[in-house]
């Protein structure tokens, strides 16, 4: 693992360090929900906006990343992204009311949404094709580990300190990090200035509208307002797509879809992210609701899966160049299938079975997500890498959010007619369809990809 990390440039390592700290914020807040509901006297649907708003904000900004890279020098762009995140974190840290936390989380989401496709594009652009698998394996280590350790950190902090300590932790570490790494930041991306297309920017609200609609199904259901938002969002996206095809310098260059191998790889990244994020949703419920572990212990029991993921990610990058994407994905999807099956059959009988299942779900992600992103971008010319990455990260977010919503709906619906234990078991079995779809999709990938 450390050998692979040493192969990256100091600039790439700087990007990874910043991304790691900001990525952790994605998955830390769910553990604080009960505390915040009590402290601010808000209900479950309201507190859920800490996650829903964050995801919507991320999705709105991700498609803008190619324009930002082409028009804003990297040093200025990275400092601005971190600055927005710090402002949001500070607001959430000191606010006396719940609205302040929402505003803070929205700003954090905007920053993370701009950072994710940007730092991945820059690392890919600055790495030879022969070494991209290794580089993206390390990126997968950072992103996957951050998502996995988020609940662990929040569980430990909340056991002894206030929820505000989570924001203080992010603020202090990131502030120190961005100051220390200033000398490492380089303007490596080739600038390609273009006017900012406000009309396209407005139509991008369609992405956020769809994600908002999907996220609100468990709390508001599907009513007239839901359908209105969905139709308007789809209409905006259709306008966006038509406009991008006409512009000389589009926000998102949709020509990436013409390159063979890009679309299957893009969809595979979303499916693999689904397995990772569902593991972080289901496992705390198994540990706390079935085996009555404390939040601290349920967080600590996620450590083996996080370590397993961190060990496999760099290895998968090396294996990509040796055995190809197709065989890697078969391995990863098989691991995910066994993980869901293990949860669905033995999840209520043994906490150890849950631990092994989490390791398989997260470990399977290591063999799919970053290798698929690498393969997708290797199919593109360098000038389209930022556009390809922006589309992948946006679609991954939508698929991941959709998976969380489906899990919530399944658990709630089944629990209404059965026990909570059976709701978790049956939900795990339903999610077997994800790796099955992944395996079917893999058939379309050529063996040499």
UniProtKB/TrEMBL annotation:
PANTHER family hit by this protein: MAJOR FACILITATOR SUPERFAMILY MULTIDRUG TRANSPORTER MFSC
Gene Ontology MF term list: transmembrane transporter activity
GO cellular component entries: plasma membrane
Domain Major facilitator superfamily (MFS) profile positions: 11-446
Domain of life: Bacteria
Source species taxonomy: Bacteria, Bacillati, Bacillota, Bacilli, Lactobacillales
Membrane-spanning segments: 46-65, 77-95, 134-157, 163-182, 194-212, 224-242, 262-287, 293-312, 324-343, 349-373, 394-414, 420-443
Protein name: MFS transporter
Record membrane topology: Multi-pass membrane protein
One Pfam family linked to the record: MFS_1
Species, as recorded: Leuconostoc litchii
Keyword match Transport: yes
Keywords, sorted A to Z: Membrane, Transmembrane, Transmembrane helix, Transport
Subcellular localization, as worded in the UniProt entry: Cell membrane
């Amino acid at each position: 693992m450390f050998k692979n990390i040493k192969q990256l440039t100091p600039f790439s390592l700087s990007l990874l360090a910043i991304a790691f700290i900001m990525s952790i914020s994605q998955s830390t807040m769910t553990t604080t929900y009960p505390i915040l509901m009590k402290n601010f006297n808000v209900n479950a649907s309201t507190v859920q906006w800490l996650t829903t708003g964050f995801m919507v904000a991320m999705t709105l900004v991700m498609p803008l990343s190619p324009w930002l890279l082409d028009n804003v020098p990297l040093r200025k762009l990275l400092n601005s992204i971190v600055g927005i995140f710090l402002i949001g974190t500070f607001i959430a840290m000191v606010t006396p009311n719940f609205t302040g936390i929402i505003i803070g989380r929205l700003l954090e989401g905007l920053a993370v949404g701009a950072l994710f496709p940007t730092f991945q594009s820059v690392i890919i652009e600055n790495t030879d094709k022969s070494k991209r698998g290794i580089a993206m394996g390390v990126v997968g280590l950072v992103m996957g580990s951050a998502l996995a350790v988020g609940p662990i950190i929040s569980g430990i902090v909340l056991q002894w300190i206030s929820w505000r300590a989570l924001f203080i932790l992010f603020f202090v570490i990131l502030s120190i990090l961005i100051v220390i790494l200033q000398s490492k930041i380089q303007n490596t991306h080739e600038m390609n200035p273009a006017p900012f297309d406000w009309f396209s920017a407005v139509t991008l609200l369609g992405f956020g509208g769809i994600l908002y609609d999907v996220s609100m199904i468990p709390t508001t259901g599907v009513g007239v307002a839901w359908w209105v938002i969905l139709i308007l969002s789809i209409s905006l996206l259709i306008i966006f797509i038509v406009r991008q095809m006409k512009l000389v310098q589009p926000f998102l260059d949709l020509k990436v879809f013409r390159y063979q191998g890009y679309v299957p790889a893009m969809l595979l990244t979303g499916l693999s992210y689904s397995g990772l994020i569902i593991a972080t949703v289901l496992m705390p419920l198994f540990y706390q609701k079935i085996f009555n572990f404390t939040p601290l212990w349920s967080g600590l029991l996620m450590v083996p899966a996080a370590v397993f993921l961190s060990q496999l990610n760099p290895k998968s990058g090396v294996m990509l160049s040796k055995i190809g994407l197709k065989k890697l994905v078969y391995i990863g999807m098989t691991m995910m299938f066994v993980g869901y099956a293990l949860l669905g059959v033995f999840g209520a009988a043994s906490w150890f079975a849950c631990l092994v299942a989490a390791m398989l779900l997260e470990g399977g992600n290591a063999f799919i997500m970053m290798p698929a992103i690498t393969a997708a971008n290797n199919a593109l010319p360098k000038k389209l890498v930022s556009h390809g990455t922006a589309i992948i990260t946006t679609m991954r977010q939508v698929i991941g959010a959709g998976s969380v919503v489906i899990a919530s709906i399944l658990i709630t619906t089944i629990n209404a007619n059965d026990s909570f234990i059976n709701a978790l078991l049956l939900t795990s079995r339903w999610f077997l369809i994800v790796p099955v779809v992944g395996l079917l999709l893999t058939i379309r990938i050529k063996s040499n990809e």
